């Protein structure tokens, strides 16, 4: 299975990602990671931090001569803004008589500032916010890009697009374009509906003028996923639950849906489920076991198991907690009323959240593939995967003449 962890603070020297469990023999280079890191930094409504950083990955272990070794892959990403924060963020103990470091004592509503300060018994909310910052997700995107490379070897494509931002809902084309990201990335808000895109941009401009922030919803789609990943047998093996947990872990995400998601609760069963039929010849029948659905309201998951239909997931992001027109808070030193601290921030990061959500889906899916097919090398994994598809084809062939 895939295990990953990240380390680093928002304004520390660098971010670190470690991915463990990859098979040996996977072609991997920094260029495979830098594209997604650049995509994460884009999107209308981003703040000044994006003008400082130019995220580039450095692979420091687990790869030799362009191929994974089967050992943990470690990646670092430099924080260029560290130069502006070294006096505040230095790990060294202050010297006698040194000017006290700037503290953050007016926690922001909606952020981890106050709860984290109390939990960890700190007097400076910066000890919390530096790690709780969404800057950490750059390391996740790098880790996810590694897993995206593995999934590409098995014919899986993952993309995303924005379907709502600031209360404006898009009407994306049906079917979605292929490849999805090429079309979505051409939009400044990663939206496939030009009319909605214009309204979203206007809404972002108005929020910026008001010192406010906006949230929204991104849809993640994974195509080419084989039937049979995940399991119904235990709660923690259900793939929809694992995907939901991964998406919910993204900073500021407050809701996750699979397929119809919450909308399914308002429909009768006749309009909530997907009729089953035989897959037509020349389709992705090999990956679906020879079956197809006439719709995909389930989002490619039934009973915690993939159906072979595209995975369709939604992540809803609340507005960013840092406001240029701050909300009421308290002073941690005195307990008296105060205005919340203002930190440099974005008006919205919903377009970037879609890229982060892709990474989290890639990490979970890569783990599910390795769980299902195993293999210490890429070739062994591919043989096991192809043998499974061959068995599904045998079942399909048995229908002939019936």
Q: What is the helix tally?
A: 13
CATH structural architecture: 4-Layer Sandwich
The CATH class is identified as: Alpha Beta
Q: Please tell me the total number of domains.
A: 1
The rounded Rg comes to 23 Å
- Unreliable stretches (pLDDT < 50, length at least 5) are none
Shape field: globular
Coarse structural class = alpha+beta
User: What's the main sheet like?
Assistant: 5 strands, antiparallel
User: What is the rounded distance between the termini?
Assistant: 40 Å
Q: In what order do the strands lie side by side in the largest sheet?
A: 8-7-9-15-10
The succession of helices and strands, N to C, reads: EEHHEEEEHHHHEEHHEHEHEHEEEEEEHH
Give the helix level as a range of percent.
25-40%
Annotate the secondary structure layout.
Elements: E1 3-7, E2 14-20, H1 31-40, H2 49-52, E3 57-61, E4 63-64, E5 67-68, E6 73-78, H3 82-89, H4 113-119, H5 126-132, H6 137-153, E7 157-165, E8 168-169, H7 180-184, H8 194-209, E9 216-223, H9 239-248, E10 253-258, H10 269-272, E11 276-278, H11 285-288, E12 291-293, E13 301-302, E14 305-306, E15 311-317, E16 328-330, E17 337-339, H12 350-373, H13 378-397
Antiparallel strand pairs: 1-2, 2-6, 3-6, 4-5, 7-8, 7-9, 9-15, 10-15, 11-12, 13-14, 16-17
